[in-house]
Amino acid sequence: MTLTAQDASKRTREICALAPIVPVLVIEDATHARALAEALVAGGLPALEVTLRTPAALEAISAMAEVSGGHVGAGTLVTPDDVRAAKRAGATFGVSPGATDALIAACEEEDLPLLPGAATASEAMQLLARGYDMLKFFPAEASGGAPALKAISAPLPQITFCPTGGVSPGNAESYLSLPNVLCAGGSWVAPKGLIDAQDWAGIEDLAREAAKLGGAA
Question: How much of the chain exceeds pLDDT 70, in percent?
Fold first, then answer.
């Protein structure tokens, strides 16, 4: 059965509500994927976005999909082929930097809930008209940051965002304090150096600190 936009936003909203930070992961070596996911989930960040920017991404998604308590999604979805490959790999949601009719249609056909990207009020309104009210604000800092999202909340209070792009421990609270922000995407919880060193305890510690942001327990 084809996924509706309303159901897609409901399901992505439920995933986004699991923790204040969604780790944005660039994985070069799929053999690290399972241990990385286990560390992030143990630290309190169960929703994981694996970006389709490396040859190892799809294999990493498959490995992470087996981790208990985790919800692995595919990021950087750009084409319908990306959507189909992510679904086959085991992704339970998708994230895109923007949105096209073809991409949205593919996600609905594949029953893959999508967090579509928007950077302007017009883009957000177009997605809202299609039934999507849980959006990614990207690139967040380059698009005006928290002040821009605060301004958007006045005329478009029915839309909720997950800002991604330039979000850091230093500015995350400014986003998470906004009424129209449910969570934020961040890459700092899984830095390349710690992944390469297989320092899973260090990543778990970073995840635990990130899970406390925004007043979360």
Answer: 99
Where do the domains of the chain lie?
A: 5-191
Kindly name the residue from 38, 49, 110, 204 that is annotated as catalytic.
49
Query: Which is nearest to 106 in space by CA: 83, 123, 132?
Result: 83
Q: Which residues contact 32 (CB under 8 A, 6 or more apart)?
A: 60, 195, 198
pTM score > 0.90 for this model?
yes
Contact 189, 164 (CB under 8 A): no
Average pLDDT over residues 110-133: 98
Domain 5-191: CATH superfamily, name plus number? Aldolase class I (3.20.20.70)
Task: State the catalytic residue, choosing from 108, 110, 136, 204.
Answer: 136
Q: Considering all CA atoms of the chain, what is the largest pairwise distance in Å, rounded to the nearest integer?
A: 46
Is 49 noted as a catalytic residue in this protein?
yes
Q: What count of residues does the chain have?
A: 217
Q: In this structure, how many other beta carbons lie within 10 angstroms of the beta carbon of residue 40?
A: 31
Q: Which residues contact 196 (CB under 8 A, 6 or more apart)?
A: none
